Amino acid sequence: MLRISAELRSKIIAHATADHPDEACGVIAGPAGSDWPERFIPMLNAERSPTFYRFDSLEQLHVWREMDDRDEEPVVIYHSHTATEAYPSRTDISYASEPGAHYVLISTADLARPQFRSFRIVDGDVTEEDVAVEPE
Amino acid sequence: MIVPDGPLEATGIYAYAQSWSRQNMAIEVRIPTILRTYTGGAKSVEGSGSTLAELIADLDGRFDGLGDRLMDDAGLRRFINVYLNDEDVRFIGGLAAPVTDGDTVTVLPAVAGGAR
Question: What ipTM did this prediction achieve?
Answer without folding.
Answer: 0.93
